[in-house]
Amino acid sequence: MGDRYPLTWELDSLYPHPETDDFRAIVNRLKDELIRLAALSEELPAVNSSAEAISAWRQFLTQHAEAHAESTAVNAFVGCHAAADAASKTFQRYEGELSALSPLQSQIATNIEFAFQAADDDTFAAFVGGNPSLQENAYFLNLCRRSAKLRLPREQELLAAELDVDGLHAWGRLYDRLSGELRIQIQERGEIIERSPGQVQFDMPQRAIRENNFYAADKAWSGIADSCAEAINHIAGSRLSKYRRLGIDHLTAPLNQNRMTRETLDTMWSTVTLRKTCVVDYLRKKAELIGVDRLSWFDLQAPLPSTGGPADAGLSYDEACDLTIDAFSGFSPEFGDFAKMAIDQRWIEVEDRAGKRQGGFCTDLPTRRQSRIFMTFTRSSDSMSTLAHELGHAYHTWVLRDQPVFLRDYPMNLAETASTFAEAVLGENRLAASSSRQEKLQILDEMLSDAVSFLMNIHARFIFEHHFHQERTTGEVSAARLGELMQAAQQEAYLDALAEDGWNPNFWISKLHFYITEWPFYNFPYTFGYLLSLGTYSLAKDATDFPGQFRSFLVGTGCQDSEAAVESSFGYDLREPEFWNRSLDIVELRVQQFLELAK
C-alpha cells in the first residue's frame, strides 16, 4: 500500500475468485444463456411493424443486452486477474474458455445484422418507431444494418467465427503468453537482474543506462521474433482472407468500427504530415540539450539534463494522485470527485512488481457500474500521465453508465479523446502552476514527447501496418522483412530525424497493439483522439459551460458517428483540415515555447 493511496486494485467485490466453484458456476450460467440466446436468434421473426415482430424483438434485445453486459464484465474480471498474474495457468484457461464463447456472440450478432440488413429504410423506420425501447436503440440497430454489409454469407460467417477461436484469436493469445512470460536480463551494479518488459525504463537521465536497457530488451524480444512473425502473419492473413471474399480493402473494417469515413482519416494524416515538421525542431533542440548530434530511439523518453528528470525526482504515487485529482477538479468538480473515488475505492492496480503483463488499460464492468485500471507506476511523470489517461477512459464509461447498454459502447477513436483530454488537463494545469523555467521546460518536454508519440510513433505504426498488409496479400512476410518495413515506416513518420543507427526495427515484436485480434489497425485512433482532445481543449476558454458541453459530447460518442458527434457538440467538420489545424497550432505553440525556454 502507498502512504495514503492503495497500489493494488480490489477485485473480490466484483465476482468470486476464478479458482472457486462459485465463479465456475457464473461462467457456466453465462455459457448456457449465450447458447439459449444464440438458438433464439435463429427463430426471430422478420423485421417489420407487426405487433408480434416488435414484441419478439423487444424481448430478445432486452435479454441480449443483459447477457452482453454480463459477458463484458466477466471477461474484464478474468482479464484483470490474468494481467496481474501473467503466469497463472488458471487465468489463461479462463481466457481461452471465454474466448471460445465468441462464436455464440458472433452468431447472435450475425443473425441480428442479417435480419436488419433485409429491412429497407421505410420498414426499419416503422419498426423502431413501434416501441419506445426500440426507438431508444435505433442508432445501435442502424449500426447493425451497416455492419451486415461487412459480413460473409450467414453460414460462412458462423463457420469463420468458430474457426477464429483456434485461428485468429489463438494467435493473439499466443502473443500474450509469449510477451507475458518474457524476461529481460539487465545488468545492474554488477548483477544480472530479470525484469518484465513493463518494468524496463527508458526515462532515466543516464544515457548509458537507457542504451543498455534498450539493447537488453531488444535482445530479449529478438529471441521470440520468429514466433511473433508467425502470429502477426496469421492474424493479418485471417483478416485478409475474409476481406478478399467481401471485396474490401484492409481499412474498410477498421473505419467502420471507428464509425468514421476514409475522407476524415485521409484529411487527418495529410494535415499531420504537412504540419509536423515543427516537431523535428523540438527533436533537434532536445538532442542538443542532452549532448548528442541526433536522438536515438532510446533517447525519446529521456529527461532533460537541466531538470534532473522524472527518475531523479522520484515522484511518489501519492503525489501523482494528488496532482491528477487537483487538475481534474480545476476543470470539472465532477471529474475530480470521480478520480478521487476511483483511486480511494481501489479501482486501480499500479504496483511495480514482476509477473505482471506489460502496458496499461482501463476495462469496463457494466453490470457493476465500475471500471478497473491496470498499469505499472514507475515513480515518473510519464506514469502520472498514464494514470490520468486511464482515468479519462474510466470517466468516459462513468458518464455513460445510465445509457442503454448498447449505447454505452463507443468507437476507439472517440474513446481515446477522453483519455488524451485528461492528459491535456493535467499537463496544462502543471504548466500554469509552475513558476520555474526548468520545470516549465520539463513539462513542455513531456507534452512534446506525447506529440512525438501521436504524430510520429503512431503514424509509423499506421504506415507499417498499411505496407505490411499490402505485402501480406502475396504471402507470408519474414521476420527480417517485417523489421525492414518497420524501420522504413519510422524513417518516414519521423521525417528521418533520428540518428542513422538510432531506429528500432524490432518494434513490431514488442508493440502488443499489433496483436490485438478484436480491433484491426488498432493504432490510428490514438492520433485521432489526441488531436481531437487538443482541439476541443482549445475551445474551453471561449465556452460558458465547457465541462457540461464536453460531458454531452462523451454521451454522444455512444449514439452518433464520429463526425456527427464532433459537429453537433463543437461545430467542426472533421473531413476538412480546419479542426486538425487548430489542434496542430497548439503543438506548434508548445514547440515555440520550448525553443524559447531552451535558449
Set down the secondary structure blueprint.
Blueprint: H1 21-41, H2 51-84, H3 89-99, H4 102-117, H5 121-128, H6 132-136, H7 138-148, H8 154-166, H9 168-181, E1 184-188, E2 191-195, H10 207-222, H11 225-246, H12 252-257, H13 262-275, H14 277-290, H15 309-313, H16 317-331, H17 333-344, E3 348-349, E4 361-365, E5 370-374, H18 381-399, H19 412-433, H20 437-472, H21 479-493, H22 507-510, H23 524-539, H24 546-556, H25 562-570, H26 577-597
Parallel strand pairs: 3-5
Antiparallel strand pairs: 1-2, 4-5
Helix pairs in contact: 1-2, 1-4, 2-3, 4-7, 4-8, 8-9, 9-11, 13-26, 14-26, 16-17, 16-18, 16-19, 18-19, 19-20, 19-23, 20-21, 20-23, 20-26, 23-26, 24-25
Number-wise, the strands total 5
In one word, what is the shape?
A: globular
Instruction: List low-confidence stretches.
Output: 307-312
Helices and strands: which structural class? mainly alpha
CATH domain class name of the largest domain: Mainly Alpha
- CATH fold topology of the largest domain: Neurolysin, domain 3
Average pLDDT over all residues: 93
**Treating each run of at least 4 consecutive H or I residues as one helix, how many helices?**
26
Terminus-to-terminus distance: 43 Å
Computed CA radius of gyration, to the nearest angstrom: 24 Å
Domains, number: 2
Features:
599 residues; mainly alpha; Butyryl-CoA Dehydrogenase, subunit A, domain 3; Neurolysin, domain 3; 3-stranded mixed β-sheet; two-stranded antiparallel sheet; 26 helices; 65% helix
